[in-house]
Write a structure and sequence with these properties.
The protein has one domain (about 5-100): Thrombin, subunit H (Beta Barrel). The chain starts with a helix and ends with a strand. It contains two helices and six strands. The protein is about 20% helix and about 50% strand. The chain has a six-stranded antiparallel barrel. It has helices spanning about 5-20, 65-70; strands spanning about 25-30, 35-50, 55-65, 75-80, 85-95, 95-100. It is globular and about 35 Å long. It has about 110 residues and is an alpha+beta fold.
Length: about 110
């Protein structure tokens, strides 16, 4: 699948998720730049470490790169309603989507 086809497919999927209540409108802030975007927030995600041990329950945010412009850096923020979620690390990414691990306590 080409990058443009993947990006187009992901845009349609995210729009469907918003309609179904599975994704939310958000604001991505990197430095002094804020950008509206659509995200999926997942609480209680179990991260697996060495020897298949569960390391911790985390919150992740999945966002479309076409909306936010670049892979988030540590300390960047997603605001969903009144909830401010600070990026701690990147769990996964491809040409279209990035999954961020959120700093504990956010």
């Amino acid at each position: 699948m080409s990058n443009s086809a993947l990006t187009s497919l992901d845009a349609r999927v995210f729009n469907a998720f918003v309609g179904a209540g599975l994704a939310d409108a958000a604001t991505f802030t990197s430095g002094i730049t804020s950008t509206p975007c659509t995200v999926m927030v997942d609480d209680g995600v179990q991260l697996i470490g060495d020897q298949s041990r569960v390391l911790d329950d985390k919150t992740t945010v999945t966002a479309r790169l076409a909306e936010i412009g670049a892979v988030p850096a540590r300390g960047d923020k997603f605001t969903v309603g009144t909830r401010v979620l600070t990026v701690d690390a990147i769990a996964d990414k491809d040409e279209s989507i990035v999954v961020c691990i959120i700093k504990d306590g956010c």
